[in-house]
Structure formats: C-alpha cells, structure tokens
Design goal:
The complex is a heterodimer of chains A (280) and B (325).
Chain A (H helix, E strand, L loop, with lengths): L3 H6 L14 H30 L2 H10 L1 H34 L5 H8 L1 H4 L2 H12 L13 H26 L2 H9 L4 H30 L2 H7 L9 H10 L3 H32 L1
Helix pairs in contact in A: 2-13, 3-13, 4-8, 4-10, 7-8, 7-11, 8-10, 8-11, 9-10, 10-13, 12-13
Chain B lengths: L2 E10 L2 E11 L4 E5 L6 H9 L6 E6 L2 E2 L10 E4 L11 H11 L4 H14 L15 H14 L4 E5 L7 H18 L2 E6 L2 H7 L2 E6 L2 E6 L1 H6 L4 H7 L3 E3 L2 E3 L4 E4 L8 E11 L2 E8 L4 E7 H6 L7 E6 L5 E3 L1 H4 L1
Parallel strand pairs in B: 3-8, 3-9, 6-7, 7-8
Antiparallel strand pairs in B: 1-2, 1-4, 4-5, 9-10, 11-12, 12-18, 13-17, 14-15, 14-17, 15-16
Protein name (chain B): ABC-type quaternary amine transporter
EC number (chain B): 7.6.2.9
GO molecular function (chain B): ABC-type quaternary ammonium compound transporting activity; ABC-type sulfate transporter activity; ATP binding; ATP hydrolysis activity
C-alpha cells in the first residue's frame, strides 16, 4: 500500500532538485558572504534588539508609549508611507516619460534625477531651507512644520522608483503591446494588464527602498523641520536626543520599532507585487 | 476577396518603404509575402494589420474599409517573429486574453482555450509560463492566441524566423496542415523562398517597396516575370547569354545539339546527394551546373576535364540583363 504513494511523489519536480549545489569555491563565497553580512548587519541588529530588551518588555513598551516618542514614530511612518505612495505614481510616470518620449532636454533631466541621490543629505537640507525657509523666494514658509518632513523625504527618495522602473521599461518589447492591441486591448487595458504587471517587481523594489530611506532620513530634514515635538520631530531625531540624554535603551527601542515596521512594509510590498504579477 | 490593398504608399523620411501597392488576397488561402529584408514586406503586413498607417491608399478587409480602423477593431490575428508572449501569464491565460477582453462568459472561454491548445498540441502546457516553453512551442501558443479571437485574417510576420532549421521545417509542415483544417485567410511574411514555395498557395514577391510578381509557386518558379524573381526563387547561372537554373544545364562529354557549348570543368563541389559543377566555357562564361552524384560519377567529372554544356529541353531561360547592355 505504501509503495504507490512514493511513486506519485517522485513525479513532483521538487524532488529532482538537489538539496545543495555548493562546490568548494561557491562554499567559500557563501562563507565570505555570511561573515560580511553578519559583521555588518546581523550582529549590530541583534545588538540593538538586545539593548532594547535589557529592561524587559514593560520598559520597552514604556519607551515607545512616551507621547513625544510615539508622535515622532507615527509621523515618520506616515510621512514615509505617503511619500512612497507618491513615488510609486510619480516615479513610474517619470520613468515612462524618460523611456518612451523624446523631447528637448531629456539628457539633462536624466542627470538631474540622480541629484537627490548624489547630494550629501545635509546639502539637500540646506537647499530646501533656502527655498522653503523663513526667507523663501517662493513665499512658501514651510520651515518648522510637518510639511517640511514630507517635502524633504520626497526630495531624497525621488530617484528610487524611477531608477528601478526605467531599465525594466526599456526591456519591454514593443511587439508585446502590439500583440495585445491586435487582440482588441485598448491602450489603458494594455497598460493595466500587460505593462503594469511586468513593472510591478521593479515598482515594489523601488517603493521598498524609498520607504526604508524615508524611515531613517535625518540629514535632509533636520534643518528645515526644526524638530518641534508633536509637530515636526521624526524618529531618527528622537533617537539622537535619547542618546544625548543618556538613554541608550530608549534609542534602541525606537530603532527596533523602526526595524520591525520596515521589515513589515517590505514583506507587504513583496506580497502585493506577487499578487499583481499572478493576476495580470 | 478577403483583403484588398489599393494605392498604398508609405515613406519613412526619405526611405520609400511601399510604393503604389495594389494587391488582392483571396479568401481562405495561404499567401506568402516573399522578398529580401528591407524590401517592404513586413511594412505591407503591418499596414494590413493596422499597426502601421499608410501615407495614401486604402485597405479593405472582407468588403469593409479598414483604412481608418485601429488595429483593435480590425479583428486580425497577428503573430510576431519573436512570439510577443505575455511573460507573466500562463499559456492558457495568453490564449484567453483576446476573449477576456471581449468579455465572453467564463465557460465559453475555457472551452475555446482547451480546443485551441488541443489544436496546437499544447494541452499539457496550459499552466506553464511562456518562459518554460521552447521557441517552437511559444510560437504555437502565439498562433493559438491569435486564432482565439476568430480573426477574419491571420497575419504572420516571419513566424519561424527565430527558430532553428529543424523546428522551422516541422512548423512549416504543421502550419500548412493547420491551415487546411482551419481555412482562415492567412498571409505570412518570409524571406526564405523554400518556405514560401513549400507552404503557400500563392506567393507575392515584394522588392524595393513594390510588387515584382504574384502567382502560384509553380508559376513563379517556372515563369518568373523578371530576372529578380528568377534569381530570388532559386539558383541561376548564365549560359549562352541567358539566365538558366543550374539543374537545367546538361553536362555531356560530346555536343548534343547546336546550343552545346564547350568548356573546362574548373571546380567540383559535392554537397550531400548533389554535385555542383563550375564550367569555364571557351566563350569565357562561368556556368554552374547541378547534377546528381551518380550522374557526375558516370561522367567521371573532375577538375580540368573537357565537357559540353547544353540547356535541357524545355528549360526556362531568360535573357540575362547584364549581357544585353
């Protein structure tokens, strides 16, 4: 009776895959990867978690339920989410324009897109301060308001989605769109059912980068935002002040919280992306 | 008449892609647009499909003026050289795409997709992604996808161009048999004369933006309208100032008619079952002849041997354009 079951099982493609493909060289490669990754990422992360948990669960919860800290964390998450959503839309549009359209000054725009990447963040902060600060030539006085946080995040995260989507869009074959059209699909249907699912992984990757950057941003917003508690103070500033006030547990607790949220969002983005690709 | 193209012109800047094209493609037949690359055959196919707008002229499909209709409304099935598969959709979903766009009931779509996958021998592959198929399988999927919308005409742009020689041959046979089953008016573009001669009911020879000749494979091969058609459809050589097919040149040790020309064998090239012979005549012409291996052996042909070359009785010859000058 048991003989029939393994027979069926053996037809599954999974069983034909070997458990490991490691040779000596690839084994060394994996070893180096793990060592490097551990030294730079895993061990510091664990250290943060340990520091955060030294006082036990209630101390950890106390740190986070401090009203000022909670407000800072909420502002950080909210602004990172909003800016990421904006980037998903605007970034895709910009990538589309850069790939599909030909216009005067396109080469220049290509270069300008990367400036928020290349600029030291404190320089970005200065630029924003001179444009939107007290002496704004535009008449927009956004210094010391929560708007300044959104503005700074939008500025520094602009390139992420654009640069992830652009190469994928360039790789898309024109004949795939023509095939969809010949089968009766309108431009918008083709975009929704053929182009967008192909871009989804790139958009999700860009969104994840954009969100993670937004969660930890410090340099570009610290000048313009004024770091007013309950108004424009973000989590990273809060971490700094905790350290300055000799409260490393508090700093670690906030850091751990940011870590968890970032992980959560990256997982959710991945799920959305998979779903989109499957559904078509 | 299924497709009528009249007075079509198309330019890209200074380049004339199509010049005053008038063409009628009969219903239910398999027609090949044959010509060298850059000759305009693909542009013509894309104009028929509505993927390209002609500068002037009209396209009528099944009696309906389609000139101003976008590709979405023409109800044509189009198959691309590089498959144009929807990579993120399964094979079955690819085939179902056109029907889903048309909002057909789910059960009907399911039934139709099953039928088509059966027709193109991909029934077991419905759940796979296109990337898990071979090139030939992908092109069959693309064909099923195009047939799903029950097109009034099926247009194929170099459908086997990206496949290797063996699969090409198989798919070519298969397309012919499929067409005999489905009977949809089909136009396919190819630069391979063998493919056109083997598969098509009718061949349209397109060159430099114009049509050189339209006819059945026999007509084109046996009575080419000009030297371009003659040389494009098969090998040619010159003998006595005329173009002639190398297999229509007879090689003998002594003269057999007043048209026999004496010469010396300058090269013997053996390719599988045939022998290709280069003969330098006393008049200074270089003549190529094709013989079977046994025939060549019987004549004991080798380089330096003296032979006579004569056009076979009934061979088609044409005044060579270069010698007229």
């Amino acid at each position: 009776m048991t003989a029939t079951i393994p027979e069926v099982r053996s037809a599954a493609p999974r069983s034909s895959r070997p458990a490991s493909t490691l040779t000596l060289t690839s084994g060394i490669g994996l070893g180096v990867t793990m060592l490097w990754f551990s030294l730079l990422v895993l061990i510091p992360l664990v250290a943060v978690i340990i520091t955060a948990s030294t006082g036990g669960w209630s101390a950890f919860a106390d740190q986070l339920t401090n009203e000022q800290t909670a407000a800072a964390i909420l502002l950080t998450i909210r602004s990172a989410l909003v800016v990421t959503l904006v980037n998903v839309v605007i970034g895709t549009v910009i990538a589309w324009v850069l790939v599909r359209d030909r216009f005067w000054g396109k080469g220049l725009l290509e270069v300008i897109i990367d400036i928020p990447f290349a600029l030291p963040t404190i320089v970005a902060g200065l630029v924003l301060l001179s444009l939107y600060g007290a002496e704004s030539p535009l008449g927009l006085h956004w210094a010391n308001t929560s708007t300044s946080v959104y503005l700074a995040l939008a500025f520094v995260t602009l390139p992420f989605v654009v640069r992830m989507v652009q190469p994928v869009l360039e790789e898309l074959d024109a004949d795939v769109e023509e095939a969809a059209a010949s089968l009766g699909a309108s431009r918008s249907t083709t975009f929704r059912r053929i182009i967008l699912p192909s871009l989804a992984p790139a958009i999700a990757a860009g969104a994840a980068l954009s969100f993670a950057r937004g969660m930890g941003e410090y340099g570009s917003l610290v000048l313009l935002s004024g770091n007013l508690p309950f108004e424009s103070e973000v989590a990273s500033v809060r971490i700094l002040s905790a350290i300055e006030n000799d409260n490393p547990e508090g700093a670690a607790a906030i850091a751990a919280m940011l870590l968890v949220v970032s992980l959560l969002v990256i997982v959710v983005l991945d799920l959305i992306q998979r779903r989109m690709v499957r559904r078509g | 008449m299924s497709i009528e193209v009249s007075g079509v012109n198309k330019r890209y800047g200074d380049f004339v892609a199509l010049e005053d094209i008038n063409l009628t493609i009969p219903t239910g037949q398999l027609t090949a647009l044959l010509g060298p690359s850059g000759g305009g055959k693909t542009t013509l196919l894309r104009v028929i499909a509505g993927l390209e707008t002609p500068d002037t002229g009209s396209v009528v499909i099944e009696g309906k003026d389609a000139t101003s209709l976008p590709v979405q409304k023409r109800n044509v099935g189009f198959v691309f050289q590089h498959y144009a598969a929807f990579k993120h959709l399964s094979v079955a979903k690819n085939v179902a795409f056109g029907l889903e766009i048309r909002k057909r009931p789910r059960a009907e779509i399911q039934k139709k997709v099953d039928e088509l996958l059966e027709l193109v021998h991909l029934s077991q592959f419905g759940n796979r992604l296109p990337s898990q198929l071979s090139g030939g399988q992908r092109q069959r999927m693309a064909l099923a996808r195009a047939l799903a919308i029950e097109p009034s005409v099926l247009l194929l742009d170099e459908p086997f161009g990206a496949l290797d020689a063996k699969v090409r041959k198989e798919l070519r046979d298969w397309l012919r048999r499929l067409h005999d089953e489905v009977h949809v008016t089909t136009v396919f573009v190819t630069h391979d004369q063998e493919e056109a001669l083997e598969v098509a009911d009718e061949i349209v020879v397109v060159n430099q933006g114009g049509i050189e000749q339209i006819g059945t494979p026999e007509q084109l091969y046996d009575e080419p309208a000009n030297d371009f058609v003659m040389s494009f459809l098969g090998d040619v050589t010159t003998l006595g100032g005329s173009l002639i097919r190398p297999h229509d040149v007879e090689v003998t040790p002594s003269p057999i008619s007043e048209h026999s020309v004496e010469g010396t064998v300058s090269r013997v090239l053996r390719i599988g079952f045939e022998v290709r012979l280069t003969v330098l005549t006393d008049d200074g012409e270089v003549v190529t002849a094709e013989l079977t291996r046994t025939h060549a052996r019987a004549l004991q042909l080798e380089e330096g041997v003296n032979v006579f070359v004569t056009p076979s009785p009934g061979a088609y010859t044409m005044r060579a354009p270069s010698s007229a000058a």
